[in-house]
Amino acid sequence: MPNIDTQYSYNFIDLFAGAGGLSEGFLQAGFKPVAHVEMNRFAAKTLETRSAYYYLKGTNNLSLYKNYVSGKISRDDFMKQIPASITKTVINETMSDETLPSIFKTIDGIMKIRGITKIDVIVGGPPCQAYSLVGRAQSSRMEVPMEEDPRNYLYKLYARFLKRYQPRMFVFENVTGIESANGGAIWKNIQKYLKRVGYEIECREQNAYKFGVLQNRRRMIIVGWLKKSGLKYPEFLEIKTDAIVNDLFTDLPKLHPGESANEYAESKASSYITESRIRTKDDVLTHHICRPNIDRDIKIYRRAVELWNDGHKRLNYNDLPDELKTHKNRHSFTDRFKVVEGDEACCHTILAHLSKDGHYFIHPDIEQNRSITVREAARIQSFPDSYFFEGSRSSQFVQIGNAVPPMMAKGIAMGIFEQLYKGDSDGR
Question: Which one from 128, 203, 346, 347 is the annotated catalytic residue?
Answer without folding.
Answer: 128
